[in-house]
Amino acid sequence: MLGLILRRLSISAVILLVVSMLVFVATLLLPGDPAQAILGQQATPERLEALREQMNLNDPFAQRYLHWLGGLFVGDFGVSAASGGSVAALLGDRIAASLVLMVAAAAISIPVGILVGTYSALRRGKAGDHAATGISLVLAALPDFVIGIALVTLFSTTVFTVLPSVTMAPPGEQVWDYPSQLILPVLTLVLVVMPYIIRMMRTTMIEVLDSGYVEMARLKGVPERQVIWRHALPHAIAPVAQVVAIQLAWLAGGIVVVEFLFRYPGVGQALVDAVTNRDVQVVQALAMLIAAVYVVVNLFADIVGIVTNPKLRTGGIR
Amino acid sequence: MSTLIEQQTEVALQATDLRVATTLGKEILHSVSFTLQRGRMLALVGESGSGKTTAGLACLGYFRTGLAHVGGTVELSDGTDLLALADAGRRGLRGGSISYVPQDPALSLNPAMRIGTQIMEVLRVHGYGASEQARRERLAEVLTDVGLPNDAAYQRRWPHELSGGQQQRVGIAMAFAFRPEVMVMDEPTTGLDVTTQALVLQTIHQLVTTHAVAGLYITHDLAVVSEVADEVAVMLAGRIVEQGPSDQVLHDPQHAYTRKLLNAVPDLAGRHHIGAVEAVTGAMPIISRERAASARLTAPIVASTSLLSVADLRLSYGSNAVLNGIDFELGRGESLMLLGESGSGKTTAARCIAGLNDSYTGSVSLAGTTLQPGTRQRSAEERHRIQYVFQSPLSSLNPRRTIGESVAVPLYMSGTFSRKERRALVLEALDQVQLAASFIDRRPGQLSGGERQRAAIARALVNAPSVLVCDEVTSALDVSVQASIIDLLRTLQVETGMAMVFVTHNIALARHISQRLAVLHAGRIVDIGPTDEVLENPQHSYTRELLTHVPTL
Questions:
Q1: Which of B24, B108, B174 to mutate: most A Cβ within 10 Å?
Q2: What domain range includes position A183?
Q3: Domain total in chain A
C-alpha cells in the first residue's frame, strides 16, 4: 500500500513541476513589463533598469525559472508588481479567508451529500428519492452565480432581510470574526457542490445494494443498519471520493465567482485584481496554488480508493 | 399412518402452497410445497427461470427486489410460520437456524472484509456462545469442518487471496457456523472445476449427515443431484412437476419434462445420445462425397489430411506462463475437444488459433500455410476460414443490431456481395442453424439464450469456414438447450465437412461432440488421442484424477 501511495505522490510531484513550467512560460508571454507596472509611466529608463536588475529580470530565462522555483519551496513567491510588497504577505490573509470558505463548504456538503445520497438509494423509487434527485438535478443545472443571487434575494434583500449580502470586515480583522457574513457564500458553494455528490452517491449505493455481498449479509441475518454501514457504504465511498475530489478542485477555481458576488476578500478576488493590474508574480503564485489544490485533492481521492480496496492494499492488483 | 408421526419429528422445514408474484402481480411461483428433513438433502432441480432460487430464498423469508410473497407458509420444526414473522423475527432466523450458501462466492463474500471477520459476524449477530473467546473457538472449529486451515493468518485473509473452491468453503463455513437446522444451497458448485466440485460436495454431504442438518440443494445439474440428494423435486415454470426419492426420479421419471431433462444430460460413457444425433463413438463422421463437394469449401487441396496444425504454441503474461508449448494437428472434417479446467490456458489457446491473441510464439498453420499471429496481419481469406463462437452470445452479439445485420457482418468484410446475395446467404446461414427466416429482423434481446447462441453460430458459418473454434459455447446454457446446440454442431459438421475445435471444461460432452480429445493442464497438452482411447486408457495422472471426479447419473 505504501508503495502505491509513494508512487502516486511522486506522480503528483512531477505534475506540479510540469505545471510550474507551463505557468512560468505562460506568464512570460503576457504583455507588459513588471518593472514598468511597478514604477508607472513616468519612470526614468535608469530606474527601470535598476529595478529590472533588482528583480533579476535581465537574467537568462532558465535561471529566472530556477530562481522562482527555488523561491516556491521556501515560501518566497516574489514581489508583487502592483503593491511592491511580498506576494506571500499579500496573499496570506486571502488564502486563509478562501480556505475557510472551502473547508466550511466541504465539511457541510460531503457528509450531507453522502447521507442524502444513501437515503435516496435506500428509498429508491419512493417519494423521498424523487424529491432528492429532482432537487439535486435542478441545483446541478443552475450556475453558481444564479444560486448566489437567488440566495441574496431570498435572505438579504427582497424577501427576508436576515443575512448580510456582502462581506465587510474592517481592515486588520479576519473574516471569520463575522460568522453571519460567511453563511451565504458557504451556502452557495454547498448548493453548487452537493448535487453531484448526492447523485453519485445514490448511483454507486444502488449498485452496491444490489450486489451479492449485500444480499449475503442480509441472508446472514445482519441487521439492516449494520448491512448499510459495514457492507455497503465502504464500497460506495471510493467512486464518490473521486467526484468529491473533482468538486473540491473545482472549488479552488470556482470560488472566484462566488467571492466576487459576495465581495469576499479571498484568492478569487486577488486573482481578478492581479490580472487587471498585470501583477505577474501574484498570478504565478495563485496559478500554482490552484494547481496544487487540484493535485492534492485528487491524491486524497486516490488514497481513499486504495484504503477502501483490500486488493490494492495487499498488492493483489498492480 | 404411523410413519407420518415418525417423520414429523424429523421435519425441519415445511413449505406449503408457496406463492410468489412480481410486484406487478404476475405470479412466478405457483403453489410450491416441499418438506426438508433432518440429515436429508432435497434437490430442487430446474432450468433457468424455473423459480428454484426464488423458492430457496423464500425458505429464509427473503424475496428479491420486485418480488413479493402472496400466499402459503414456511413452517419450521417448532411450528412457527416464518413468513408470518416481522422483519426482525425473520432476521433472527436467517444465518442462525436457517442459512444460505450462495452460488458465486466471489460475488457474495464482501471483498473488503477479512474472511474470519465475515464468519465471526454471523456468530456475533446471533450471539453464539457466552464470550468472544467461545466465538473464536467456533470459528476455528468451523473452518476445520469445511477442510480449511484455521490458523490466525488464514482467518485474516481477504476473499481475493483465496481460490474459487476455498471461497466457496468459506461460504459454507459461514452458513454452518451457527449450527443451522436448515441449509439452503444455491448451486454452490456451479462455477467450480470438477475436482474442486467433488471436494465441496463431499464437505457438504459430510456436514449434512453428521450434524443432521436439513439441506435444500438448488441446482440445474442432474449429475450432481445423483451424488448428493436423497430426494429430488423437479421444477418447471414455477411449479414442482415431479417429486420423490432421488433413485426413483432419476431412473424412473414419470413426468415428460423430467424425462426430457434427463435425456439432455451428456454422460461420459456416451450410453445414450443427447439430442437427435447419435453420440460420437470415436469413429470419424461419415461425410458423403456429394455433400463435401456441395459445401462451399474453397480450401486448396493438399497432400496431407491435416488442415490446422499448431506447433509449440507458447504465451506468457510477464513471468506468468499461460501456454507452455502446445502441439496438435486437426484433420479435415475432424472435431477435437480441448478440455481443461479454469486457468489451464484452453481459451487462450483457442484465441491464439483464431488470431485474437497475437502475442504468442510458435506457429499456427492452416492447410500448410503458416498464419501471421494477429487477425490484422492475416488475409481476409485466412480470417474467413477460421471462425470463432464465443461463450456468451449475450455479450458477443451487438444488442442494437438485428440478427440479420450481425450475421451479415462477415459478408461485408469480404465485400464482394450485393445486397440481395448477402440476404440470401444470411437466410441460408439462419436455416443451417434452424432459425426461422423471421429472426432476421429481431434483436438479441428478443431471443432466448439458445436462439442467441444459434445466431452467433450462424454468423460464424456465413462465410463457410473450414475451422470452427467453439469456446465454451454451451456452458452458459441450460442442459436441454446445450443438447440442442451440440446436436446442431454435430449436424453442421457432418453437412459442411468443417473441422471443429471445441473448447470446454465439461468432460461429459467428450463422446458427444469430438472424435479426438486433448486434455490441457497448466498450459500443456497432457493427453491427446481418439476420445475413447483417452477416456478408457488415460496416460496422464491428471486425466485419471479428472475422470474419477466426474459426477455421473
A1: B108
A2: 88-278+285-313
A3: 1
